[in-house]
Amino acid sequence: MGIGAVIFDMDGVLVDSEPFIAEAAIEMFDRRYGVKVKEEDFQPFIGAGEDRYIGGVAEKYGVEILMPEDKDWTYKIYGEIIRGRLEELPGAGDFIDFCRKKGLKTALATSADKVKMEANLNEIGIPLSSFDAAVNGLEVEKKKPYPDIYLQAAELIQTPTSRCLVVEDAINGVIAAKKAGAFCLGLTSGFSGEELKEAGADFLAVNLKEFDHNLLFKRECFETGE
Protein backbone atom coordinates (compact mmCIF):
# COMPACT_ATOMS: atom_id res chain seq x y z
CA MET A 1 0.00 0.00 0.00
CA GLY A 2 2.96 2.34 0.43
CA ILE A 3 3.57 5.08 2.97
CA GLY A 4 0.68 7.15 4.31
CA ALA A 5 2.43 9.21 6.97
CA VAL A 6 5.79 10.49 8.13
CA ILE A 7 6.52 10.83 11.85
CA PHE A 8 9.40 13.10 12.80
CA ASP A 9 11.62 13.00 15.84
CA MET A 10 12.81 16.53 16.68
CA ASP A 11 16.34 16.66 18.09
CA GLY A 12 18.87 15.68 15.45
CA VAL A 13 16.16 15.53 12.77
CA LEU A 14 14.65 19.00 12.57
CA VAL A 15 17.20 20.80 14.70
CA ASP A 16 20.60 20.07 16.19
CA SER A 17 19.87 20.97 19.79
CA GLU A 18 21.96 18.25 21.43
CA PRO A 19 25.04 20.47 22.01
CA PHE A 20 22.82 23.14 23.59
CA ILE A 21 20.85 20.88 25.93
CA ALA A 22 24.16 19.31 26.96
CA GLU A 23 25.60 22.79 27.57
CA ALA A 24 22.55 23.68 29.67
CA ALA A 25 22.71 20.46 31.69
CA ILE A 26 26.46 20.86 32.27
CA GLU A 27 25.83 24.35 33.61
CA MET A 28 22.98 23.07 35.81
CA PHE A 29 25.20 20.39 37.38
CA ASP A 30 27.87 23.02 38.02
CA ARG A 31 25.52 25.63 39.48
CA ARG A 32 23.41 23.26 41.58
CA TYR A 33 25.93 20.66 42.69
CA GLY A 34 29.41 21.96 41.87
CA VAL A 35 29.98 18.88 39.71
CA LYS A 36 31.86 19.13 36.40
CA VAL A 37 30.25 16.74 33.92
CA LYS A 38 31.20 16.34 30.25
CA GLU A 39 29.18 16.50 27.04
CA GLU A 40 30.09 12.92 26.15
CA ASP A 41 28.53 11.72 29.42
CA PHE A 42 25.09 12.38 27.93
CA GLN A 43 25.64 10.36 24.74
CA PRO A 44 24.09 7.06 25.95
CA PHE A 45 20.89 8.85 26.99
CA ILE A 46 20.16 10.79 23.80
CA GLY A 47 16.57 10.27 22.71
CA ALA A 48 15.40 8.90 26.04
CA GLY A 49 13.86 12.13 27.36
CA GLU A 50 15.33 14.73 29.68
CA ASP A 51 14.53 12.85 32.90
CA ARG A 52 16.78 10.00 31.82
CA TYR A 53 19.19 12.33 30.02
CA ILE A 54 19.93 14.21 33.25
CA GLY A 55 19.30 11.28 35.57
CA GLY A 56 21.68 8.91 33.80
CA VAL A 57 24.57 11.35 34.15
CA ALA A 58 23.64 12.05 37.77
CA GLU A 59 23.91 8.31 38.49
CA LYS A 60 27.36 8.18 36.88
CA TYR A 61 28.63 10.93 39.18
CA GLY A 62 26.74 9.79 42.28
CA VAL A 63 24.63 12.95 42.41
CA GLU A 64 21.20 12.77 44.05
CA ILE A 65 19.26 15.15 41.85
CA LEU A 66 15.91 16.76 42.55
CA MET A 67 13.20 16.36 39.91
CA PRO A 68 11.50 18.22 38.37
CA GLU A 69 13.46 21.17 39.82
CA ASP A 70 16.75 20.26 38.15
CA LYS A 71 15.04 19.68 34.82
CA ASP A 72 13.28 23.04 35.13
CA TRP A 73 16.64 24.68 35.82
CA THR A 74 18.11 22.98 32.76
CA TYR A 75 15.26 24.14 30.53
CA LYS A 76 15.53 27.69 31.85
CA ILE A 77 19.24 27.80 31.02
CA TYR A 78 18.52 26.12 27.67
CA GLY A 79 15.92 28.72 26.71
CA GLU A 80 18.49 31.45 27.31
CA ILE A 81 21.41 29.93 25.43
CA ILE A 82 19.57 28.93 22.23
CA ARG A 83 18.44 32.45 21.36
CA GLY A 84 19.90 33.32 17.99
CA ARG A 85 22.01 30.15 17.97
CA LEU A 86 19.61 27.36 17.03
CA GLU A 87 19.12 26.57 13.34
CA GLU A 88 16.91 24.24 11.33
CA LEU A 89 18.82 21.23 10.00
CA PRO A 90 19.25 21.15 6.20
CA GLY A 91 16.05 20.30 4.35
CA ALA A 92 13.83 19.82 7.42
CA GLY A 93 11.17 22.43 6.68
CA ASP A 94 11.18 21.72 2.94
CA PHE A 95 10.72 18.00 3.54
CA ILE A 96 7.76 18.60 5.86
CA ASP A 97 6.20 20.85 3.21
CA PHE A 98 6.84 18.21 0.54
CA CYS A 99 5.07 15.53 2.58
CA ARG A 100 2.04 17.72 3.17
CA LYS A 101 1.78 18.79 -0.47
CA LYS A 102 1.86 15.12 -1.50
CA GLY A 103 -1.02 14.30 0.84
CA LEU A 104 0.98 12.45 3.46
CA LYS A 105 0.03 12.92 7.09
CA THR A 106 2.73 14.29 9.38
CA ALA A 107 3.35 14.00 13.09
CA LEU A 108 5.99 15.15 15.54
CA ALA A 109 7.06 12.69 18.24
CA THR A 110 9.72 13.94 20.63
CA SER A 111 10.89 12.63 23.98
CA ALA A 112 11.58 16.23 24.99
CA ASP A 113 9.12 18.01 27.27
CA LYS A 114 6.59 20.41 25.76
CA VAL A 115 8.56 23.50 26.82
CA LYS A 116 11.64 22.37 24.88
CA MET A 117 9.58 21.28 21.89
CA GLU A 118 7.92 24.69 21.65
CA ALA A 119 11.18 26.59 22.23
CA ASN A 120 12.93 24.67 19.46
CA LEU A 121 10.16 25.04 16.89
CA ASN A 122 9.77 28.73 17.66
CA GLU A 123 13.51 29.36 17.32
CA ILE A 124 13.85 27.60 13.95
CA GLY A 125 10.59 28.93 12.53
CA ILE A 126 8.70 25.66 11.98
CA PRO A 127 5.19 26.13 13.41
CA LEU A 128 3.53 23.32 15.32
CA SER A 129 0.66 23.63 12.83
CA SER A 130 3.00 22.04 10.25
CA PHE A 131 2.07 18.70 11.81
CA ASP A 132 -1.28 16.90 11.95
CA ALA A 133 -0.43 15.78 15.48
CA ALA A 134 2.33 16.11 18.04
CA VAL A 135 3.36 14.01 21.03
CA ASN A 136 5.93 15.17 23.59
CA GLY A 137 7.71 13.36 26.39
CA LEU A 138 5.23 14.43 29.05
CA GLU A 139 2.48 12.53 27.25
CA VAL A 140 4.05 9.07 27.38
CA GLU A 141 5.15 7.16 30.46
CA LYS A 142 7.60 4.84 28.73
CA LYS A 143 10.18 6.74 26.70
CA LYS A 144 12.28 5.49 23.80
CA PRO A 145 13.52 2.80 23.23
CA TYR A 146 9.97 1.75 24.11
CA PRO A 147 7.63 2.19 21.11
CA ASP A 148 4.87 4.03 22.99
CA ILE A 149 5.48 7.52 21.55
CA TYR A 150 5.33 6.28 17.96
CA LEU A 151 2.30 4.12 18.61
CA GLN A 152 0.52 7.15 20.08
CA ALA A 153 1.53 9.41 17.19
CA ALA A 154 0.29 6.88 14.62
CA GLU A 155 -2.99 6.55 16.48
CA LEU A 156 -3.49 10.33 16.53
CA ILE A 157 -3.03 10.57 12.76
CA GLN A 158 -5.11 7.42 12.25
CA THR A 159 -2.46 5.60 10.24
CA PRO A 160 -1.23 2.05 10.92
CA THR A 161 2.42 2.03 11.94
CA SER A 162 3.07 -0.37 9.05
CA ARG A 163 2.33 2.60 6.76
CA CYS A 164 4.44 5.09 8.69
CA LEU A 165 7.99 6.22 8.05
CA VAL A 166 9.69 7.43 11.22
CA VAL A 167 12.60 9.84 10.83
CA GLU A 168 15.13 9.36 13.63
CA ASP A 169 18.76 10.12 14.43
CA ALA A 170 19.32 8.21 17.67
CA ILE A 171 19.77 4.53 18.40
CA ASN A 172 17.06 4.59 21.08
CA GLY A 173 14.66 6.20 18.61
CA VAL A 174 15.35 3.74 15.80
CA ILE A 175 14.74 0.84 18.18
CA ALA A 176 11.48 2.45 19.28
CA ALA A 177 10.33 2.97 15.68
CA LYS A 178 11.02 -0.63 14.73
CA LYS A 179 9.34 -1.98 17.86
CA ALA A 180 6.30 0.07 16.88
CA GLY A 181 6.24 -1.70 13.51
CA ALA A 182 7.17 1.34 11.41
CA PHE A 183 9.77 1.87 8.72
CA CYS A 184 12.65 4.05 9.81
CA LEU A 185 14.90 6.56 8.10
CA GLY A 186 18.05 7.05 10.16
CA LEU A 187 19.85 10.38 9.87
CA THR A 188 23.54 10.23 10.62
CA SER A 189 23.67 13.55 12.48
CA GLY A 190 24.54 11.98 15.82
CA PHE A 191 25.36 8.31 15.27
CA SER A 192 27.08 6.45 12.45
CA GLY A 193 25.16 4.75 9.67
CA GLU A 194 26.52 1.41 10.87
CA GLU A 195 25.14 2.00 14.38
CA LEU A 196 21.73 3.07 13.08
CA LYS A 197 21.54 0.12 10.66
CA GLU A 198 22.41 -2.25 13.50
CA ALA A 199 19.56 -0.72 15.52
CA GLY A 200 17.19 -1.47 12.64
CA ALA A 201 17.08 1.58 10.34
CA ASP A 202 15.71 0.73 6.88
CA PHE A 203 17.19 3.76 5.14
CA LEU A 204 20.05 6.17 5.85
CA ALA A 205 20.75 9.78 4.92
CA VAL A 206 22.97 12.57 6.16
CA ASN A 207 19.97 14.86 6.54
CA LEU A 208 16.52 15.42 5.04
CA LYS A 209 17.91 17.56 2.24
CA GLU A 210 20.00 14.64 1.01
CA PHE A 211 17.23 12.03 1.34
CA ASP A 212 15.63 11.11 -1.99
CA HIS A 213 12.06 12.35 -1.47
CA ASN A 214 10.78 10.16 -4.31
CA LEU A 215 11.61 7.01 -2.34
CA LEU A 216 8.44 7.71 -0.35
CA PHE A 217 6.42 6.71 -3.39
CA LYS A 218 8.36 3.63 -4.43
CA ARG A 219 6.03 1.03 -3.06
CA GLU A 220 8.56 -1.77 -3.39
CA CYS A 221 10.80 -0.03 -0.85
CA PHE A 222 8.09 -0.26 1.77
CA GLU A 223 7.18 -3.83 1.00
CA THR A 224 10.71 -5.14 1.52
CA GLY A 225 12.27 -2.39 3.68
CA GLU A 226 15.16 -2.13 1.24
Descriptive notes:
The structure is a single chain. This protein is an alpha/beta fold. It has two domains: 5-16 and 87-224, Rossmann fold, CATH 3.40.50; 18-81. Helices cover 40% and strands 11% of the residues. It has nine helices and six strands; from the N terminus they run E-H-H-H-H-E-H-E-H-E-H-E-H-E-H. It has helices spanning 18-33, 50-61, 69-81, 92-101, 114-124, 148-156, 171-179, 193-199, 221-224; strands at 5-8, 105-109, 133-135, 164-168, 183-187, 203-205. It has a six-stranded parallel β-sheet with strand order 3-2-1-4-5-6. Helix 1 packs across helix 3 (69-81). The chain is globular, with a radius of gyration of 17 Å. The two termini are 15 Å apart. The relative contact order is 0.18. The model has no long low-confidence stretch (mean pLDDT 93).
Write a compact overview of the structure shown.
This protein is of the alpha/beta class and 226 residues long.
How are the elements arranged and paired?
Elements: E1 5-8, H1 18-33, H2 50-61, H3 69-81, H4 92-101, E2 105-109, H5 114-124, E3 133-135, H6 148-156, E4 164-168, H7 171-179, E5 183-187, H8 193-199, E6 203-205, H9 221-224
Q: What is the H-and-E element order?
A: EHHHHEHEHEHEHEH
Radius of gyration: 17 Å
CATH class of the largest domain: Alpha Beta
Helix-strand category: alpha/beta
Overall body shape: globular
Helix content: 40-55%
Given the structure, what is the number of helices?
Answer: 9
Number of DSSP strand runs: 6
β-strand percent reads: 5-15%
Q: Examine the coordinates and then state which fold CATH places here, giving the name of the CATH topology of the largest domain.
A: Rossmann fold
Q: Whole-Å distance between the termini? A: 15 Å
Overall CATH architecture of the largest domain: 3-Layer(aba) Sandwich
**Average pLDDT number:** 93
Q: What topology, given as strand order, has the largest sheet?
A: 3-2-1-4-5-6
Largest sheet: 6 strands, parallel
CATH homologous group name of the largest domain: HAD superfamily/HAD-like
